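Pilot study result, target chain (250 residues):
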Amino acid sequence: MAGRFILLLTLAAGLIGDVPARAQQDLVADLSDHLVAITTGFTGADVLLFGAIEGEGQIVVTVTGPRGDVTVRRKERVVGVWANVESVTFVNAPSFYAVASTEPLENVANADIRQRQQIGIENIAMHPDDREVDPGTAAIFRAGLVRNKRAAGLYSDAALPITVLSNRLFRTRIHLPANVAIGTYTVAVYYLRDGSAVHAQTTPLVVSKTGIGADIFLFAHTNSAAYGVLAIIVAVAAGWLAAWIGRKVG
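Predicted structure:
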C-alpha cells in the first residue's frame, strides 16, 4: 500500500509539473488491495481506490461483481398458504454493484452516457431470460431484485463520495459486506469533462476464499455427493453425542 501510494504521488507530480503534452496522462488510479481474502470470521472489507487526474473534471467509479442469472419470485397467499406464483429470471445480473462520484450522477453525465457506461443502479444491463415477458412485469420484478440486493447490502443506495485534493489527487473507499460473492470484480474509473468521458481505466479486484473455509468450499463444489453424505454423518454424530451427554448429565 505504501509503495503504491508513493508511486502515485510521483506520477501525480509529473501530471502537475510542466511536462510535454504527449507525456501527460489524464488519469492514474489504483487500489490499496487487488485481493480480498475471505477467511473464517470474515466480516467485510474496505478497499481504498486512489488516483490523480490532469486538469479539471469529474470522476465516477463503479464496482461490479461477478455476473450471473438471478431468479426473482413473487409470493401470494393461496388457500391460506404463501406460495410462489410467478417468477422472472434476469440474465447477467451483477452480484454486487457500487458507484462513487465527485458530484450527483445527473450532474456528471447525461442520461445517454450513464446508460452506456452502466453508471447508476437504474442503468445496470440485465434482462429477463424470457424475451416475451411483458415490459411492465419485467420492471416490477427488476425493482424487486434491486430491493433485495439493497437489503442485503450488495447494491449501494446512492453514489458514494469521492474526495479530491488540490483538484488533482482523489480517493474513495468501497465497502464489501460479509456476504459478497467470490470471483473477479471490475473496478472502472471514468474521468469526465463537460459530461463527456475523457479517459477511462478498469482494474480487476479478486475476492477469494482462503484457509480451511476455502478447502471446504472447494470440496463441496467438486465432490457434492460426498460432501452431502459427510454432512449427514456429522449431523447424526453430533446429535448422538448431544443425546449421550444429556443422558450422562441427567
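One observation from the pilot: The chain has two domains: 2-210, 211-250. A full batch analysis is planned for the follow-on phase.
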